[in-house]
């Protein structure tokens, strides 16, 4: 791969920025200063550093996003802001949200351009865990906990798969863990129990928790360990 392209792939910079880095002598290949944008590097073998920092090459992008309420989980929309409107980076072509959260749901959403991994994470048979914090109109009960564990009729062909419901100290505050992703699933599960979700936030997916340092609307790249975790699950 050309060195200037490699710099873009690793840092998210533009091609002209990468040329500027090279011109300024900020780039080393295998410890040697390099200024030629056109030379070829092997991502698997060559070590490239920018201002002394060794770069790591990723074929795909993996982002963690703290979705705020009021934006749709889509790449484009005529009416509402989309999650993509929050991803301020030069090259976001090909990135899309992994699954969806409702317009009014907040919390953890992965974005990637790795269609294969996304597909596997969402495949019904994989039973990838998703955890939500919910505030309810009425306190939940031990009977609700039992019903969630058994499975609930929400108007689908089959009852929901066993789900975890934990009652938090504040009445009406709960944590729910499900292993499927049916449309409006959490809201429909509580509705079936005669209750109503008034606030919903996804706090974890596939064993990865929403980074507490991310405010609503902020994102960061997944760490190598997090990407590995997603890969190992699928
Ligand atoms: N369940 C819901 O009801 N809404 C979401 O956004 C996610 C899960």
From TrEMBL:
This protein's UniProt keywords: Isomerase, RNA-binding
PANTHER family to which the protein is assigned, alphabetical: PSEUDOURIDINE SYNTHASE, PSEUDOURIDINE SYNTHASE FAMILY PROTEIN-RELATED
Stated name of the protein: Pseudouridine synthase
Domain of life the protein comes from: Bacteria
Class in the EC hierarchy, top level: isomerase
MF (Gene Ontology): RNA binding; rRNA pseudouridine synthase activity
E.C. number: 5.4.99.-
Gene3D superfamilies for the chain: Alpha-L RNA-binding motif, Pseudouridine synthase I, catalytic domain, N-terminal subdomain, RNA-binding S4 domain
Family per record: Belongs to the pseudouridine synthase RsuA family.
The species this protein was found in: Candidatus Choladousia intestinavium
UniProt key word Lipid metabolism: no
Ranges where the RNA-binding S4 domain occurs: 1-59
SMART domains, A to Z: S4 (SM00363)
One of the GO BP terms on file: enzyme-directed rRNA pseudouridine synthesis
Keyword Disulfide bond in record: no
């Amino acid at each position: 791969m050309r060195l200037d392209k490699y710099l873009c792939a690793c840092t998210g910079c533009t091609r002209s920025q990468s040329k500027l880095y090279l011109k300024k002598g900020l780039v080393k290949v295998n410890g040697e200063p390099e200024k030629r944008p056109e030379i070829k590097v092997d991502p698997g073998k060559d070590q490239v550093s920018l201002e002394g920092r060794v770069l790591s090459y990723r074929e795909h992008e993996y982002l963690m996003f703290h979705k705020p309420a009021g934006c749709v989980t889509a790449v484009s929309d005529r009416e509402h802001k989309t999650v993509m409107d929050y991803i301020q980076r030069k090259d976001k072509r090909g990135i899309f949200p992994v699954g969806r959260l409702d317009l009014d749901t907040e919390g953890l959403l992965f974005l990637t351009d790795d269609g294969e991994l996304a597909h596997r994470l969402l495949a019904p048979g994989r039973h990838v865990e998703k955890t939500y914090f919910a505030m309810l109109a009425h306190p939940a009960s031990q009977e609700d906990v039992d019903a969630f564990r058994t499975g609930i009729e929400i108007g689908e062909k089959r009852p929901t798969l066993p789900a975890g419901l934990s009652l938090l100290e504040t009445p009406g505050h709960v944590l729910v863990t499900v292993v499927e992703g049916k449309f409006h699933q959490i809201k429909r599960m509580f509705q079936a129990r005669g209750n109503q979700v008034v606030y919903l936030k996804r706090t974890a997916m596939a064993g990865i928790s929403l980074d507490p340092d991310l405010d609503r609307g902020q994102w960061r790249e997944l760490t190598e360990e997090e990407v590995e975790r997603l890969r190992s699950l699928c």
